[in-house]
Each structure stands twice: as structure tokens, then as C-alpha cells.
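Weekly sync, protein design subgroup
Attendees: M.S., D.O., the rotation student, P.L. (late)

Item 1: inverse folding check
M.S. brought a backbone from last month's batch and wanted to see whether the design step gives back something sensible before we order anything. D.O. pointed out we never logged the input encoding, so this time it goes straight into the notes. C-alpha cells as presented (528 positions):
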């Protein structure tokens, strides 16, 4: 038996961004970039590990909003259009750089990557990447888990327990719809926990969840094994697992983290901003705004504006070195812990945003590939594991109450509740109360009323997304976040008044249903 286990967790999430009312919408690029740079590369890593007989385990959340977009025919069509545009640009770049050897090979690399991405997306997975993730899930290697329906920050929704339960239960139902069975685990949105949320998870059949370090480290009573073993919430039996700060710091830290190495690709030096505007114009959005196009020719180089050309082989070697360093540190970590846990193998929980790997950190999927191979072939001290496997092997777990927490700045609610975004919560709380009121009032609605009630639930859920408050706080795409919040609140209130006065505007309702069409099986009675 190994001295310890590593639970590598990738949180894959994007807010629901779908605008059929426009032929071309800038913010939809969030999804398309993640497909090309993160989700397809990860699936290819998993494919290569399976092909080579590597025994591996990874845990991955796929949030309901992300699953809704990946399975949406309109967005699937638009992704193919998007990747075709990048393929056309890369062909032009191969020609433009033919006398620039430091860039010509890179242009060819991007052309190969874009062409391969289209083949994987269209031919291998039939335009729906969920099929790929489901295959590895069913094989027992990839542990898929769910999240809140629209990634609502649960500690600030706790004034209305029905709203919390709706986020949790709908997250579980959507997971079942996409992956064929109910989830065992849940990624709490923003790792936001408050006592009572575990009751909603228990009622939805959730067995475990992830939270931030201090939620478990300062649980009551204090856990005997700290953050290196799960605890279970009293009264519900739902297990809580905490983020390991040491392993997280090696990736996340702006000072010590691997992604900042000078050999790695510079995310910010993109041809969308570097090249002549008229040359790029056919490949930009219809509004003509410059944006990232995914072709980046420079490495980080250092704290300088003078960047050197990117060297893929040097970066790949560095990713291998960093994977070896990470494995070595985890080996030493579990060796040190082995004498303090009464013979119980330590569980190191290392969670990250999935989009870090490939999108922000171009070499991230290669790092994961190297790490999982090294863990399999090069040592026996630490092995990868999923949480259900760990819970089955070590069923004796301390009962302890985790506290209020998140993985945001300072560890609590400040990111999602401060001067830039506090205006949204009176609307969200009032609308949650109104949703409960309607769900209890309309016990036998006619078909049109049922449609309006279900759409009201969608609008409330979309308004509750933690992403809008986060964007308002960080100051990026602020107008879009404001517009999305106000649109969903206004739509909800309009539906509420129509239902209240029995004056449903069916053509308007149809248009709102067309635009905000996620969760086709939603049932407003979740709020009852």
C-alpha cells in the first residue's frame, strides 16, 4: 500500500453564454477557446494514457452550465465555424512567416493543432465532447462530479433554503441527464460552504464535496488528521475534503508557480493584438474589436517587454521537469505525514480550475500527462485515487462540522459581496422568495403557466450565477456582467407579474425560452 494518495481535481466551469439573437457574439469565445485549448487537449491526454496502459485517476467537475453549452447544437455549430476561421488564419500565417524561421514552425504547429481540434470535435466526438468525458467516467478512471446548477454562491443564498436546494438538486439532475447516473460528488461553487448546505447535498444523494483549507482545518471539533483525511458533517454524513495549500501553491503562486516559468508560452502576446489590423480584419468578430485568436509566438522570457520567440521543445522539457518536481514534493510530503496519521495514508487534495491547463498555461495538459505517467512508472510512494475509492477503503472518518468558507480572497464572502456587486442581492433574495411563492401557489398549472413558471426558474438561476458578481469585483467585462444580471432579474419579474395577473405573453415567452434554453427538464416545483 502506498504511503499516501493524490486526488487531482480539475474544476471545469464557464457561465452560460449563448446569444442566438446575434449571429456573432464576442463572449461566446470563452467557450470556444476552452474547447480548443483545454477540453480537447485533456481528452487527448486521457486517450494517450489509456492507449499506453497507464493506471491513472483524475477527478473533474463539469458544471451544469458548461454541460448545457457543450451539448447545445447552436454553439456546436458556431464552434466549428470558429475553428474553421482559425485554420484559415493559420494557413495565412504559414505563408506570411515563410522567411521567418523563428515563427514559421510555430505557425505550422498552430495549424496542426487547430486542424486536429476540428477532427477530434467533429469526427471523434460528433460535436459533443461530453461523450468523451463520459467514456472515461464509465471506465472508472475519470471521476466526474457536478456543481450548483448555475454556480450560485451558496453562502449568500442561504437566507432561502429552497433556493439552495434548487441549485444542488438541479445540478444533480442535470448530471444524471448527461452522464447516465447521479453524481457522488459535488464541487461547491467557489468552494463556498455554510452549515446547512450539506443537508441539501444529502437530500440529493451527494456523498462528498470539496471545500477550502480553513473550512476543515478549523472545523469543530478540530480534525485529528487535519486536511489530510476527509471529515463528515454531523447529522448528514456528507464528507468534506479540503484543498492542500502546499500542492496548490506550486501551481497557483504568482511567485513560485510553474506557469510563470520563463520558458513557457506568454498568454498575453497574441497575434490578435500584434499583427496589422487590416490583415486580421477577416478573422475578427463582426464588431471589429481586436481579441485573442490563440496564436501566440513568444515565451514569457522574463520581466521585460522584449519577448523571445517561443520554443516548444524547451517548454515541453520544462513541463517534464516540473512534473517530476511536483511528484518528488508530494512523495516527501506523504513520507513526512506518514508518521503523524496513525498509519493512515494521507490524502492530498490538489484542486485547480481546469481552464488553467491549456488556456492560461499552454503546457498544462503536457504537465498533467507527464505527472500521471511518472506517478505510474517512477515510484510507489504515492498513487492517484478518486474520493469514492478512498472512502470505500477507509470508511472510519471523523465527524466534524466545517465552517463558513470559500476559496476566494481572504477565504470567505468578500469577493462576491462588496461595493461593486452588493446591489444585486436584494433583487436575488426577493426573486427567490417570489419563486417559492409561485411554486406553492401554482399546484396545478395549465401548460402555458407551466412554461412560464419553468422559465422563471431558469431566469432566477441564471441571475444567481456567481460569475457575474465575480466579474463586477475584478473589473473585467463589467458591462456584460451588469447586463446579464439585470436582464435575468427583469425577465423574472416580468414573468412573475404575468403569472400573478394571468396575462402571459406567449410570443415574448417563446423568445425568452429560445434565448435562455438550458435545463430542458427543469421543474419549477423544486422551489416548493
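Designed sequence read out in the meeting:
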Amino acid at each position: 500500500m502506498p504511503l499516501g494518495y493524490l486526488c487531482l481535481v480539475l474544476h471545469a466551469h464557464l457561465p452560460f453564454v449563448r446569444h442566438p439573437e446575434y449571429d456573432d457574439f464576442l463572449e461566446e469565445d470563452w467557450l470556444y477557446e476552452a474547447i480548443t485549448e483545454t477540453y480537447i487537449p485533456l481528452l487527448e491526454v486521457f486517450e494517450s494514457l489509456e492507449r499506453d496502459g497507464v493506471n491513472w485517476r483524475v477527478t473533474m467537475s463539469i458544471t451544469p452550465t458548461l454541460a448545457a453549452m457543450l451539448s447545445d447544437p447552436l454553439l456546436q455549430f458556431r464552434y466549428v465555424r470558429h475553428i474553421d476561421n482559425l485554420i484559415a488564419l493559420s494557413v495565412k500565417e504559414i505563408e506570411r512567416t515563410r522567411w521567418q524561421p523563428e515563427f514559421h514552425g510555430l505557425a505550422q504547429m498552430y495549424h496542426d493543432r487547430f486542424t486536429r481540434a476540428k477532427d477530434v470535435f467533429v469526427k471523434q466526438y460528433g460535436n459533443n465532447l461530453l461523450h468523451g468525458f463520459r467514456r472515461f467516467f464509465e471506465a472508472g478512471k475519470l471521476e466526474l462530479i457536478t456543481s450548483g446548477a448555475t454556480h450560485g454562491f451558496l453562502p449568500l443564498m442561504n437566507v432561502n433554503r429552497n433556493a439552495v436546494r434548487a441549485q444542488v438538486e438541479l445540478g444533480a439532475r442535470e448530471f444524471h441527464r448527461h452522464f447516465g447516473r447521479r453524481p457522488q460528488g459535488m464541487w461547491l461553487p467557489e468552494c463556498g460552504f455554510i452549515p446547512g448546505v450539506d443537508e441539501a447535498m444529502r437530500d440529493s444523494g451527494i456523498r462528498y464535496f470539496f471545500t477550502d483549507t480553513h473550512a476543515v482545518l478549523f472545523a469543530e471539533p478540530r480534525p485529528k488528521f487535519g486536511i489530510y483525511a476527509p471529515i463528515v458533517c454531523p447529522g448528514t454524513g456528507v464528507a468534506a475534503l479540503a484543498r492542500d495549500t502546499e500542492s496548490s501553491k506550486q501551481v497557483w503562486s504568482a511567485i513560485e508557480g510553474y506557469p510563470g516559468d520563463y520558458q513557457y508560452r506568454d498568454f498575453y502576446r497574441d497575434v490578435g493584438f500584434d499583427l496589422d489590423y487590416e490583415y486580421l480584419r477577416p478573422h475578427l468578430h463582426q464588431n471589429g474589436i481586436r481579441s485573442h485568436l490563440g496564436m501566440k509566438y513568444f515565451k514569457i522570457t522574463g520581466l521585460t517587454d522584449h519577448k523571445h520567440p517561443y520554443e516548444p521543445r524547451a517548454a515541453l522539457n520544462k513541463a517534464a521537469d516540473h512534473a517530476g518536481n511536483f511528484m518528488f514534493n508530494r512523495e516527501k510530503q506523504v513520507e513526512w505525514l506518514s508518521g503523524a496519521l496513525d498509519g493512515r495514508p494521507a490524502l492530498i487534495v490538489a484542486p485547480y480550475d481546469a481552464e488553467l491547463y491549456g488556456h492560461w498555461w499552454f503546457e498544462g495538459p503536457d504537465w498533467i500527462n507527464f505527472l500521471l505517467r511518472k506517478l505510474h512508472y517512477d515510484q510507489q510512494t504515492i498513487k492517484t485515487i478518486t474520493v469514492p475509492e478512498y472512502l470505500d477503503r477507509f470508511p472510519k472518518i471523523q465527524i466534524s462540522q466545517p465552517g463558513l468558507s470559500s476559496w476566494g480572497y481572504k477565504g470567505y464572502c468578500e469577493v462576491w459581496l462588496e461595493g461593486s456587486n452588493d446591489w444585486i442581492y436584494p433583487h436575488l433574495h426577493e426573486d427567490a422568495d417570489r419563486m417559492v411563492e409561485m411554486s406553492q401557489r401554482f399546484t396545478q398549472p395549465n401548460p402555458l403557466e407551466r412554461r412560464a413558471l419553468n422559465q422563471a426558474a431558469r431566469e432566477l438561476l441564471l441571475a444567481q450565477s456567481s460569475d457575474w458578481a465575480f466579474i463586477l469585483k475584478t473589473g473585467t467585462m463589467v458591462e456584460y456582467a451588469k447586463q446579464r444580471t439585470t436582464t435575468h432579474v427583469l425577465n423574472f419579474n416580468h414573468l412573475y407579474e404575468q403569472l400573478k395577473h394571468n396575462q402571459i405573453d406567449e410570443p415574448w415567452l417563446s423568445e425568452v425560452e429560445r434565448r435562455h434554453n438550458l435545463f430542458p427538464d427543469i421543474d419549477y416545483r423544486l422551489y416548493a
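Discussion: The first helix runs from residue 29 to 51. Residues 161 and 230 are 25 Å apart (CA to CA).
Action: P.L. to compare against the previous round before Friday.
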